[in-house]
Predict the structure.
Amino acid sequence: MLRHDILYLLAEHPEKYVSGESISQHLKVTRAAIWKQIQVLKEEGFQIEGQTRKGYCLLKTPFSLNEWVLKQALTSTSLGKKIHLEDELESTNVRAKELARQGGAHGQVVLARCQSSGRGRLQRQWEAPSGGLWMSVVLRPNLSLADASKITLAASVAIVDAFEKLFDLRIGIKWPNDLIFNGLKIAGILGEVVGEWNAVRTLILGMGINVNFPREQLGPLLNATTLFEILKKEVDLNILAATILRNLEKQVIALENKEFEELRTSWLERAISLGEEVRILRGEQIIQGTFKGITIDGALLLETDDGVKSFSAGEVQLRSKEGKYF
Ligand code: ADP
């Protein structure tokens, strides 16, 4: 794409001006065509300064999702090799599933600047206004179905590690797959198996993170927060996405090599309410006990008056002792 070729040229000379003449010679297009593409790039959020005699200088890349910026930021080898980015999708998981059915490869990433009908577990609604990171990854890992459930745990750790590295922020994990800051949800994860888990083992991993928008955009009722609310500034969504994909890739490879202990330890270090009295909701039933840890299948271990019991993520919800969300 001409636009991207221009960016490569400008990025090769950071903080320097590249003349329209030399761009036009390199890319074999007219200077008018270059000017036109520069306008499009500005609309996409690139800060490019143009000076009559000197040419163009790339001052800043956009914080909003942008395929070129994301590609530059990516350090993973398989995850994100192919990127599908749209302004708006009903749901990135739904689109990723379609792409997987059409043969989408391991590591294909689907991103939307906003989602019109995002979903959480059990078809619950997921609010996804623009400014968030709404990302799904097609995974075809070399894992059994039992081991695949650990990928949602891996995604939690991948996001938590990215927040710590990039923003020096420690967020907690609420079993199985919610990320919490000061008792408020900042991100959620939704793993879904595509079709039958047999010959082609495909999993869609959806991650929704409240990033560059104020909390009010989620509506008044939710126990939620956003990174913008915490940091009081916007951050680069491309770098965040790239960092998460890199972390996730490492975790998936570790799982494929049957190394679960490190992941389990990292996960438990960030688990909210570990060792505390909690309630488990199973339909109408409430089971009380002490949260002891997770099994090698990622199930929650609860010490109750009747002994230690395990609960898998699909069937129950975790609540604090008071029954509060957290
Ligand atoms: P749970 O945390 O109960 O397991 P899910 O993981 O299924 O829930 O996520 C869906 C729920 O998350 C919704 O019912 C709503 O309460 C809440 N929610 C929806 N959108 C957001 C958002 N952008 N940020 C935080 N919480 C949200």
